[in-house]
Amino acid sequence: MKPIRNPIKIFCAAALTAILFLAVLAQAADKQKVVYQFHKASGGNGPDGGLYMDQAGNLFGLTDSGLLFELTPNGSGGWNYSNLATSLCGYPAGPLVRDHAGNFYNTSYFGWICEFSPASSGGWSSSIIYTLNSVRGEASSLVVDAAGNLYGVNGLNGANGFGFVFELSPTSAGGWSLTDLYDFKGTDGNADSSGNVGGLTLDAAGNLYGVTWAGGSNPKCAGQCGVVFKLTNNAGVWSETVLHNFGGASGAYPDSALLLDSAGNLYGTTTAGGASGFGVVFEISAASGQTRVLHSFTNKGGDGAYPQTPLVMDAAGNLYGTTTVGGLRGGCSVGSIQGGCGIAFELSPVGNQWKEFLLHDFGGLADGAFPSGFVLGANGNLYADAPSGGSEQGGLVFEIVP
Fold first, then answer.
1. Which of 19, 92, 219, 355 is the most exposed place for a label (fewest CB within 10 A)?
2. Are 306 and 280 in contact (CB under 8 A)?
3. Which residues form the domain of 82?
4. Number of structural domains the chain divides into
């Protein structure tokens, strides 16, 4: 069974540096709407890892039991639910990715890379196309390029034992071939997180960006708080550049994929560190290469704690995300979590500072718990899943109008 997310990992003490953010948490109008409730007794419960939205606005996702599902707008303000395929690929490492042929791919916690393919008859088939690890997961979500190659991070093995970045490519014989692109050395990153592994982001030039939960060389963090890295392909040889070494005050232990904006700036979250130790949202400037903290989570006054999901950005430059726990309610009606069921938040630029707005405070019973990261619809609304809670206690898919 997949362990419950536990981002509360001890990190090094560090001297606090000046951080630019507005500490006041504004309460925005709560406009959460439950799109679909999963039934705990049905076996298809626990939507997890995030959603994929196609150009028509349909949502696709996976449950912890390995069920591929689709939610389609019905034109009357509601959604129609469909089971598309069952598989062994439960406990997804992140959201589905899709190639130009319409196939979906994902990584299971158990180290399997899975493919879901539409059939000419209208049905779907599922298959395990590659097994990364036979002992435990430690694999990231995937990203796919225009040629149909898949890229990800394996937190286990590698030449130095600190994990590696891989490419999985379709072969002419109909199989898949794995290539080890880069092996971490520890001082330049350590992808072995004993939990979630951050996925990759691909730019237009084919460069890969990512994070490692541990490793690095920041002297302010004796426990090696992780790095942000860039991988560049030079005639088939991939080289790494460390863009940032986390040091506690600037964040610690990142384990989610990065957001790359149109100007080349990178945005991400860490599960710990920051001014209060509950994680941060950070930016790495494309122009200066400098890293700054946009928001430090406090777990007070409705602010969240321990963000573990990627961010999305709208056309106005506002950032949206979720935290695993925290929120106004204090306790959580799901399990034994005492720190709240998580929040959905917005960060908006105000001059050179950022202001946080609370979009929704999760309580567990009716509105879900421990939300995944958002996808942004063409209508400007946000969509995500929550693997736990809900009125049927099987998790749910929800919508938020910012």
1. 219
2. no
3. 26-400
4. 1
Reading across the β-sheet that carries 25-27, which strands appear in turn?
Answer: 25-27, 353-361, 343-350, 319-322, 312-313
Quote the pTM value.
Answer: 0.91
Q: CA-to-CA distance for 372 and 277, rounded, in angstroms?
A: 21
Helix, strand or coil for residue 42? helix
CA-angle at 265, arms to 201 and 373, nearest 5°: 50
Ordered per-residue pLDDT tens for the chain, 402 residues: 333 444 333 233 232 223 333 334 555 566 899 999 998 766 678 999 999 999 999 999 999 999 999 999 998 889 999 999 999 888 999 999 999 999 999 999 888 999 999 988 889 999 999 998 766 668 899 999 999 999 999 998 899 999 999 999 999 999 999 999 999 999 999 998 777 899 999 999 999 999 999 999 998 887 689 999 999 999 889 999 999 999 988 999 999 999 999 999 999 999 999 999 999 999 999 999 999 999 999 998 889 999 999 999 999 999 999 999 998 877 787 876 667 899 999 999 998 899 999 999 999 888 999 999 999 999 999 999 999 998 888 999 999 998
CA angle 220, 226, 229 (to 5 degrees): 120
Residue 292 within a domain = yes
CATH (domain of 166): 2.130.10.10
